[in-house]
Amino acid sequence: MIFDSPADLAARPADTIPHLATHGLSCVIGGRTILSGVDLEVRRGEVLGLIGANGTGKSTLLRVLAGVRRPAAGSVRLAGESLTAMRPRLRARHLAFVAQEETGPTDLLVGEMVGLGRVPHARAWGGFEERSRGAIRAALDQVDLGYAINQPLDRLSGGERRRALIARGLAQEAPLLLLDEPTNHLDIGHQLALMRRIRALSRTVVVALHDLDLAATFCDRVAVLHDGALLACGEPDEVLTPSILHDAFGVLATRVTHPITGRTHLLFSRDEREPHP
Questions:
Q1: What is the pLDDT of residue 172?
Q2: Cys-Cys crosslink for 117: which of 68, 139, 171, 257, Cβ 3.0 to 4.6 Å?
Q3: Number of other CB atoms surrounding residue 81 within 10 Å
Q4: Same structural domain for residues 155 and 184?
Q5: Do residues 135 and 271 share a domain?
Q6: What is the pTM of this model?
Q7: 101's torsion region: left (phi>0), alpha (psi -120 to 50) or beta?
């Protein structure tokens, strides 16, 4: 697929402009090239899964998409506008980002920490309006954490704290949500419940995942990173194929059908032709 340049993108009809797009994106950290020549378009309202082996640049790409890190080359455009040209407060109204190993300030109550997601909407020198209070409560309910609103953050388990951070991102009410490994530290029940809620959001979501079954089940499309480049992007059945997964992860994949749900799942084995780590 050939992606439009920023100039061509700006000339497209408004209803065809992707919610988020990169063109020729590269990122260098400490003299090492992490991302190179990434062209990616995220459609408005879709859930796009981002997968790849450790160290392939998933977290770096999300940080660049969030405006946390500037690219060395190329561009990121949000609804056709340059992301780097946006003021931070305006950007925070348009996108929310939850990093992978973020812990949050432990001296706050859970409701206070989730309330940080409402800062882009707060009035100058004012407290939270009732709308913000409702957004905080609703976000906590979405991650099954409403009972903890008045508890200190440092009393939560690792999984609860992870859900609280996701609630902060939900409370931000941005139309674009970027999530880096949101299911980390969650048991299988909460993983499935969280992904169902993400799937049901009326927002555009880009989510980095290690679990390929979660990506296949809950994502509209999947983008595969390999060695800092975009190896493939498409619907799960088009992308999660034995050949692409072998190139990306060095494993042998077999597709099987679940006897109850009828859904396709993946079984993996190591390719013994590959050197062991």
A1: 94
A2: 171
A3: 16
A4: yes
A5: no
A6: 0.88
A7: alpha
